[in-house]
């Protein structure tokens, strides 16, 4: 009830929820109460969560924040949310996001932007102004809801940074697990070879508990991996002695603000003080990750989004024949950024360009993966980098709006991780000159989320 009334009071301001499931939340909470009264209940019994609008929730609003899925209520439940409910969690509602998870500011949502609960000058640090800031994206609703205490934790997804960048912009913790750790079944597909779900939470412990519930092998997603899910919470508080943390020189990008540099140094000092050995490393293909991502991700998206044709789901705009109906539905149903991705994707997959762009990007992807493999072969346990090149920026920022590539640069530190299929966590590590949260990122070996939780807990 406390969470529902907080949402009712504050959602108009933050626009974090696109649907609030009052009745369902109360029913699920009552069932949890009954279990707890009998001394029963799962790991998340009675814990109220927000669910990104990308996850299919049976009978409940599921639109990937797109107009084209108007009125869509799936007949089935995603594996991730089913796992959470099986452990006793309670659904508060569906969270705003960038349309089809394409974006870094939550401004591409059909439902309008989400407002970051943080303001410049918060807590008396730096220059106060009234400018509304973005929460990051695409999981902007998830991050804002967690930061504003409108849920105890949230589900999110990350194709190129969509868990870690909004976590960094809102002072929350977000982890993108290893590709295959979490089932993608029932999660609306953006770029299938990059997409992974994970939690956004208020601290590292909550993120560890949530990921344990979300993760599973699943016969309905053949890329999910059959490995036991460890007790992530148990890795918190373990010593860093004997661990080697790599600092990749290529992440020291041109024009990086001093405060990000300072934050990174501070993170290094925390880990060193906890007993870790700090090692300079090189990931030489880093600079090709962003351009390669913006070929691979749109290519897969253009194929995945072909299913929204006005026949099977959501919106249908009548036309004079079926082709006309497809065209009108897609013209009206998709927003600008989604159309841009479909056009880029279709172009790089078309005859004559496929070898020059798509095949080339796949080769670059292999080189990026090898960079990490080499570092891990040399004994590196985890890699520390900044999570984002800046703190949260303003809603309708002119620079970003006029040049989509500037927006894409937000993902410069996060996309490599998706290209290599590795786990990455963003953890709050300090504030900028205006008191806005800044995050660091730890990148791990495949299926070694435990080391990330352990190291992130030292930094938080
Ligand atoms: N911002 C990136 C994009 O727009 C990543 C989004 C994501 O991780 N879903 O593609």
From TrEMBL:
<keyword id="KW-0648">Protein biosynthesis</keyword>
<dbReference type="Pfam" id="PF01425">
    <property type="entry name" value="Amidase"/>
</dbReference>
<comment type="function">
    <text>Hydrolyzes indole-3-acetamide (IAM) into indole-3-acetic acid (IAA).</text>
</comment>
<protein>
    <recommendedName>
        <fullName>Glutamyl-tRNA(Gln) amidotransferase subunit A</fullName>
        <ecNumber>6.3.5.7</ecNumber>
    </recommendedName>
</protein>
<dbReference type="GO" id="GO:0016740">
    <property type="term" value="F:transferase activity"/>
</dbReference>
<keyword id="KW-0547">Nucleotide-binding</keyword>
<dbReference type="InterPro" id="IPR023631">
    <property type="entry name" value="Amidase_dom"/>
</dbReference>
<keyword id="KW-0436">Ligase</keyword>
<dbReference type="InterPro" id="IPR000120">
    <property type="entry name" value="Amidase"/>
</dbReference>
<keyword id="KW-0808">Transferase</keyword>
<dbReference type="GO" id="GO:0030956">
    <property type="term" value="C:glutamyl-tRNA(Gln) amidotransferase complex"/>
</dbReference>
<keyword id="KW-0067">ATP-binding</keyword>
<feature type="active site" description="Charge relay system">
    <location>
        <position position="138"/>
    </location>
</feature>
<comment type="function">
    <text>Allows the formation of correctly charged Gln-tRNA(Gln) through the transamidation of misacylated Glu-tRNA(Gln) in organisms which lack glutaminyl-tRNA synthetase. The reaction takes place in the presence of glutamine and ATP through an activated gamma-phospho-Glu-tRNA(Gln).</text>
</comment>
<dbReference type="InterPro" id="IPR004412">
    <property type="entry name" value="GatA"/>
</dbReference>
<feature type="active site" description="Charge relay system">
    <location>
        <position position="52"/>
    </location>
</feature>
<feature type="active site" description="Acyl-ester intermediate">
    <location>
        <position position="162"/>
    </location>
</feature>
<dbReference type="GO" id="GO:0005524">
    <property type="term" value="F:ATP binding"/>
</dbReference>
<dbReference type="GO" id="GO:0006412">
    <property type="term" value="P:translation"/>
</dbReference>
<dbReference type="GO" id="GO:0050567">
    <property type="term" value="F:glutaminyl-tRNA synthase (glutamine-hydrolyzing) activity"/>
</dbReference>
<feature type="domain" description="Amidase">
    <location>
        <begin position="1"/>
        <end position="452"/>
    </location>
</feature>
<dbReference type="InterPro" id="IPR036928">
    <property type="entry name" value="AS_sf"/>
</dbReference>
<dbReference type="InterPro" id="IPR020556">
    <property type="entry name" value="Amidase_CS"/>
</dbReference>
<comment type="subunit">
    <text>Heterotrimer of A, B and C subunits.</text>
</comment>
<comment type="similarity">
    <text>Belongs to the amidase family. GatA subfamily.</text>
</comment>
């Amino acid at each position: 009830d406390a969470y529902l009334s907080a949402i009712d009071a504050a959602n108009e301001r933050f626009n974090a929820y696109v649907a609030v499931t009052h009745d369902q939340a109360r029913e699920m909470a009552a069932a949890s109460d009954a279990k707890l009264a009998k001394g029963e209940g799962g790991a998340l019994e009675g814990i109220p969560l927000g669910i990104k609008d990308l996850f299919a929730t049976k009978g409940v609003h599921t639109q990937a924040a797109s107009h084209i899925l108007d009125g869509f209520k799936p007949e089935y439940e995603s594996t991730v949310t089913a796992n959470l409910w099986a452990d006793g969690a309670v659904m508060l509602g569906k969270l705003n996001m960038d349309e089809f998870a394409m974006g870094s500011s939550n401004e591409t949502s059909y439902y309008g932007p989400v407002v970051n609960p943080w303001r410049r000058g918060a807590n008396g640090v730096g220059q106060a102004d009234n400018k509304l800031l973005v929460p990051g994206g695409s999981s902007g609703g998830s991050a804002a809801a967690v930061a504003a205490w409108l849920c105890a934790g949230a589900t999110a997804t990350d194709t190129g940074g969509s868990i870690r960048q909004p976590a960094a912009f809102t002072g929350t913790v977000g982890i993108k697990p290893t590709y295959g750790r979490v089932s993608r079944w029932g999660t609306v597909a953006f770029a299938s070879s990059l997409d992974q779900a994970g939690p956004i939470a208020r601290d590292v412990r909550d993120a560890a508990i949530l990921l344990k519930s979300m993760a599973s092998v699943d016969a309905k997603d053949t890329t999910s991996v059959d490995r036991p899910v460890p007790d992530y919470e148990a890795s918190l508080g373990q010593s860093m002695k004997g661990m080697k943390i790599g600092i990749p020189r290529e992440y020291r990008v041109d024009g990086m603000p001093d405060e990000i540099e300072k934050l990174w140094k501070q993170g290094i000092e925390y880990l060193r003080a906890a007993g870790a050995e700090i090692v300079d490393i090189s990931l030489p293909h880093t600079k090709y990750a962003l351009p390669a991502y913006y070929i691979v991700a749109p290519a897969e998206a253009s194929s995945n989004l072909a299913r929204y044709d006005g026949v099977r789901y959501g919106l249908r705009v009548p036309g004079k024949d079926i082709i006309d109906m497809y065209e009108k539905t897609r013209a009206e149903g998709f927003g600008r950024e989604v159309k841009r991705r479909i056009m880029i994707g279709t172009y790089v997959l078309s005859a004559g360009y496929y070898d020059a762009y798509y095949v080339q990007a796949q080769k670059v992807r292999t080189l990026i993966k090898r960079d990490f493999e080499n570092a891990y072969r040399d004994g590196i346990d985890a890699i520390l980098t900044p999570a984002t090149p800046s703190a949260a920026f303003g809603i309708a920022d002119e620079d970003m709006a006029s040049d989509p590539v500037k927006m894409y640069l937000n993902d410069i530190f996060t996309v490599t991780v998706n290209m290599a299929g590795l786990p990455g966590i963003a953890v709050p590590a300090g504030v900028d000159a205006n008191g806005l949260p800044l995050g660091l990122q730890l990148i791990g070996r495949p299926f070694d989320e435990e080391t990330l939780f352990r190291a992130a807990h030292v930094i938080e």
